[in-house]
Design brief:
Length: 638
Amino acid sequence: MKFVALVCCFVVLPFVIKAQADKHYLDSLEKYLTKKDDSLKLLAISDLAWEYNYTDVSKAIKLNFNGLRIAKKLKRDYAVGQAYSDLGTSYYYKRDFDSSAYYYLLALPITKKVQDSMELASLYNKLGALYKERSEFKTSLRYSFLSLKFYQALKERHKIALLYNNIGVSYEELKNFKLAKNYYQRALAVNKKDGDEGGMARNYTGLGNVSITEKKLDQAYDYYLKASAIFEKLGWGIEYSVAMNNMGDVLDQKKQYAESVERRRTALDVAQQIGDIQGEAKYHLYLSDALMKMKKFPEALKHIQDAEKLSRELQSYEIEMDLYEMYSKYYFGTNHFEQGSDYLNQFHNLKDSVYSSELSGNIASMEVKHNTQQLRIRNAESKARNLKLSNENLLATQQRNYIILGSLILLLVGVVIFYFSNQKLKRQADRKRISAVLQSEAAERTRIARDLHDGLGQLLSSARINAAALDGSVEEEDEPILGTAIQLIDQAIGEVRVISHNLMPQALADKGIVEALQELADKTNAAKSTQINFTHPPHFTAFSKEIQVTIYRVVQEIVGNMLKHAQASEIRIELSVKGNSFNLLVSDNGKGFDPASLTENDGMGWNNIQTRLSLINAKFTLESGIGKGTSVTITGEI
């Protein structure tokens, strides 16, 4: 949970930051506002508004609007452009990024018109920083490279180092860690040579983030420690709190939770002291996560609730998602599975609406939700029919009090025959509905997988070929962008293939369950860490399509759990058929576990397996023990 964005929030703009404006200096600027000379007023307003950005941003905005009015009155294009730019900066400090972008873009054509290279470089830099805050990293890179080109021509080393760092942040967010590390190192080299401690601290933060992705935890911690010491020395509260929180991330990964909690408490205290509401909400949630890993659930809940109060003011999708995730962890950890499931569903629904790339997770969530809803509907219908039948039987009993014994016996026999006939018809109808649902689901999975592979996959391949054709024909500064585009297309092609295979493996669609399970075993065995031994009857009679798909999904989930948790060297899958029944055994020689702990840790996966199997009239039994391995037996009718 690295808090990357805030690292550059208030340091990317090309200005020298002051901890606190000198009161005497502010008073002298205020006096100029009473002068009749509008030119002097403009200079005083610009400087005074900049000082108030740190102490009273609303007052700074009011001053800048007054400056804009005077600049338009004087009909000075340069002054109008500067006033728009100052307004963009003030709204940036207020974290109203939409308004900030609006005024920066108003300033851009005016600044181009007056041909002020330094101011144009500064404005491009501000736009790059702004779009980075809005998570529009490709747009941020475009403006940052434009700014870099101007600053390199002007030989502004400090600004060049800032741009290198900001470009590194954007590449890090785009998950191009190689380029991110390259630009962080470029920035660090410049800042070390110039003795810029603040710049060095920002670069250490970026290098720490990249080190985490490289699993170099000790190196990452060392980078964050260096950054935090400098930020604390300079009095940069936001950056210091971020560095402390990032140190907590490293300690979490090293399972040193007590130390992680201390770092995150420090980050939270600093955010509260400086009035950083967004940081405060984030740190409450990160702190709650660390506390829950220490089983301190009541204390964790208080921090989650504090974050919820702050989120109403912030209206941030990112914080809202984190909030749902922490609530789900809290309720699952305290054995309140229904509430935990509700919050987990809210988390996934919001995540899917914001990040459409999470296609496979969305489909799986919808599948389970759909099957659960269908079961609830059928159960409700069954209860309603049984209640109606009971009422009819009661009324018939009252009327039959005056009927002779023989007629009563005949009537009772008729009711019994009707009841069992009705139940038989109901079961047949239910099976038809279940079969239709499973057939429809399998067909839809096959169609989506085919469309992804043949449609979107081909389009991405064509885009990859066209993008590669541009190699060597673009400007030098655009080569990293082209490289990133090709890399992202390659990642997208890989994701499409994985999603397509997860939706409907080709072997299952073309040949059936035996070939699909053998393919699953072969792919796992290729990794050489755990070997799967799959046995089946030599003359196997194929199941119906819906049963095959369900069995494959269940085996896939069981094997996945064993590979993740069992630490086994061997997994056995044994499929046998006798008459109209089948038996499937999946077992491992791993460390095993106490089945009684399922309700405390992760019983949801087994509930999902039981739900799937119930749809094909099958069931499973689970046997396991500490040090005895695990075996799952699935039985059902063909």
